[in-house]
Here is the input.
Amino acid sequence: MTNSISEIRDADCIFITGSNTAESHPVISYEVVRAAKRGAHVIIVDPRRIPLVRQATLFLQVKPGTDIYVFLAMMHTIIREGWADEAFIAERTEGYEAFKAVVEEYTPERAALMSGVPAEQIELAARIYAFGERVDGPSVYEEDRGHSTILYAMGITQRSNGTDMVMTLANLAMLCGQVGQPSTGVNPLRGQANVQGACDLGCLVNVFPGYQRVTDDEKRLALAQAWEVEELPGQVGLTIVEAMHAVAEGKIRAAYIMGENPMMSDPNTSHVEQALRGLDFFVVQDIFPSETAQLAHVILPAASSLEKHGSFTNTERRVQLIEPVLPAPGEARPDWQITAEIAARYDKKMGVDRQLDYWRYPSAAAIFEELATVTPIYAGMSVDRLRGEGLQWPCPDAEHPGTSILHVGKFSRGLGKFNPVEAIDPAEQPDEEYPLILTTGRVLYHYHTGTMTRRSEPLDWIEPHGYVEVNAQDAAAVGVEDDGFVVVKSRRGQVNTRIKYSEGVSPGTVFLAFHWREAPANMLTQDFKLDPVAKIPEYKVCAVRLENPPEKNLVSRRESEKVR
Here is the structure.
């Protein structure tokens, strides 16, 4: 996030896309509601009528995979009408003319044809965002323009053009000068607790801690010296989907999966299962025996976040301490202790000569101390300084208060770069055989693959089973009644689940959450076309059809519900 969560409440316009904020980030959604009650415009671009639409002044319901046409047409309108912040563009950006030439081709009329959103609504959204207009009059800020903020999540990144989508939103913010000020910016809402921290500390395939590229010889040498090793690998690794393909091809023979459940969260899970079953050696380290752990040769019991010391970095770049409130059960240990013990035993087995205490960290605090020395954005942090509310990175020295807003005065790269982006359609389109578009996501009462929330009796009581949301028109076409059973099929597999009539999805679109092991949505999603930069699969758009279930299956499912 370029900005902080608390700034949302003072925004004049909140532009939300690819985020079911109320159900996936309910605490942040409270800030959106506060802003709306104080007079802010809320604009939502989404294929579904999500709960937060109740607070919206403008809802642009797009056909899945076509939202990029809306974004490009908004920028076309802003430039055509003279609403762009010319001073900001001239002083703080580069590449504007090449970007402008591309956007010229994307008129609101073209976007309306592709997305289903009326051209006049696109133009209205462009004006409200560009000027940071409020429902109730002048901005709460004193500048000529009001302050507009963009919130987005995996609805736009889990796509074959996800990187282009994010760059398009960055272009939109720069075009209107909505960067580097309070209540503005481009703000991704992270999907899991501490995923921001994991990225910060090098759990990406192309960077070391602090986003230092593995291909940078100077940075790599400095880190090798700090870690007292001769050299570090300089080639970019495989992302999770690429790695699973390599497993299936026999190029990877062993795997160690920690805190991840690809048997539910990876696309085309039939392919994932086939790959994992073919491993020579497979280790899973987790707090519960997940669907993935069922396939492992060895399961290592890890301590949960309530049972260990450490730090979490949240979606606004805030690093916060965690302290144990419960003892870890049985033989469960913090992840770092397990990993360090394995590494120490490997060194001993292989006769590697290191200092005696190389892997023997006395505490999580000692690890954080080392972390601060090799991660420039954390350099000024310490365990003592994190007590209380924590600190937001970058925090370059011990006197620095942390950074609530990025890119104030100038961008971290110097000039902000406009990236010309063309619209690219989803990799898989509906056809006669598979006429519907499936999009996936979450529901309020469950989290990710359900390994924790579905063990909670109150949450399971409220939302005990999965369902596919279908417009009544599409349900009628296959003759399935509301709350009846239906088969959802794609080119990769099928799931049997209940049907739920919903006016929240347009005809031609169906929605299935991916929490349900009985109806795993990712049996249906595709893994053949990845984003060329981020290597993210297209979870949010795939072609499916609905069928009536076999009668014997229908009976068995009903009987299982009675038993439950």
Observations:
- Confidence is low (pLDDT under 50) at residues 555-564.
- The chain has three domains: 5-189, 195-391, 436-563.
- The two ends are 43 Å apart (CA to CA).
- The longest strand covers residues 494-501.
